[in-house]
Amino acid sequence: MLSDKLLVVFLFLLLITACGNSASQHSAAALGAAEPDGMAIFRKYCIACHGADGKLGLNGAKDLTQTTLTLEERISLVTKGKNMMTPFGEILTQEEIRAVAAYTQTFK
């Protein structure tokens, strides 16, 4: 009888602990999702034409080390595309577009 009560208490404590860890993991995942990795996005979608250093210029891609575009102009360009550049407005989220646009500013 005592072992049954201990088992119930143990399972109750295990349940409480599991729920607490789950909430912490979801919060961490939500924080990670709120801040996309601009470098990773650039490497996935942009490196083929712009190159790792932003200077490749394949298919008419601009040299990102020479551009004077503001962050907002870069966001618009990534969203809408231009000439042979793919418009990413329906491919990436606005947060991802902002992150990759901000990353391109590091090439200066």
CATH top level assignment of the largest domain? Mainly Alpha
Please outline the major beta sheet. Answer: none
- The CATH architecture of the largest domain is Orthogonal Bundle
Overall mean pLDDT: 81
Alpha plus pi helix count: 5
How would you sum up this structure in a few lines?
This protein has 108 residues and is mostly helical. Helix content is 61%, strand content 0%.
Outline the structure in words.
It is a single chain. The chain has helices at residues 2-34, 38-45, 47-50, 71-80, 94-104. With 108 residues, it is mostly helical. The longest helix has 33 residues, at 2-34. It contains 5 helices and no strands. It is elongated, with a radius of gyration of 23 Å. The model is unreliable at 9-29 (pLDDT under 50).
